[in-house]
Amino acid sequence: MLLLAAILLAVFVLSAPWNGLVLVCGLLGETGEVVFGIWYSRRRRTTADAERMIGVTAKVVEPCRPRGRLSFKGELWDAVCTEGADTGERVRIAGMDRSTLLVERIGAS
């Protein structure tokens, strides 16, 4: 966006040598914005990895009879619960099959 504004200023408003200076500043600003965006996105850790999920509880969003969906740390996951679980119920993550969580009802044996 900054580069677009600089181009419009350089072409329609400013004269030499200011138009070149504004273009360079716009290009530097745009490059800095892209670099900052890449840095910011890479500094975040993943919110959930498979090893840390096992044994933790999650909330059912769509009924698991036996397939449904649940919410874990703000992410939606496909889930399978053989005992069945209703919306709003808490379940324990027992394992993972590819990207589907295998869950069991808390209190079920």
Outline of this structure?
By secondary structure, the protein is α+β, with helices and mostly antiparallel strands. The protein is 38% helix and 29% strand. The protein contains three helices and five strands; from the N terminus they run αααβββββ.
Characteristics:
single chain; five-stranded mixed barrel; 2 domains; alpha+beta; OB fold (Dihydrolipoamide Acetyltransferase, E2P); 109 residues
Walk me through what this model shows.
This protein is an alpha+beta fold and 109 residues long. It has two domains: 2-43; 50-105, Beta Barrel (OB fold (Dihydrolipoamide Acetyltransferase, E2P)), CATH 2.40.50. Helices cover 38% and strands 29% of the residues. It is built from three helices and five strands, in the order αααβββββ. Strands 1-2-3-5-4 form a five-stranded mixed barrel. Strand 1 and strand 2 (67-72) form a beta hairpin. Helix 1 runs antiparallel to helix 2. It is rod-shaped. It starts with a helix and ends with a strand. The mean pLDDT is 89.
Number of helices: 3
Q: What's the CATH architecture name of the largest domain?
A: Beta Barrel
Rg to the nearest angstrom? Answer: 25 Å
CATH hierarchy class name of the largest domain: Mainly Beta
Principal-axis shape = rod-shaped
Average pLDDT metric: 89
Q: What share of residues is helical?
A: 25-40%
Count of structural domains = 2
CATH superfamily label of the largest domain: Nucleic acid-binding proteins
Strand order of the largest sheet: 1-2-3-5-4
Write the element-wise H/E pattern from the N-terminal end onward: HHHEEEEE
- Let me know the largest β-sheet: 5 strands, mixed, barrel
Distance from N terminus to C terminus (CA atoms, Å) equals 58 Å
The total strand number stands at 5
Structural class: alpha+beta
pLDDT < 50 runs, ≥5 residues: none
- Give the CATH topology of the largest domain: OB fold (Dihydrolipoamide Acetyltransferase, E2P)
Q: Note the beta-strand portion.
A: 25-35%
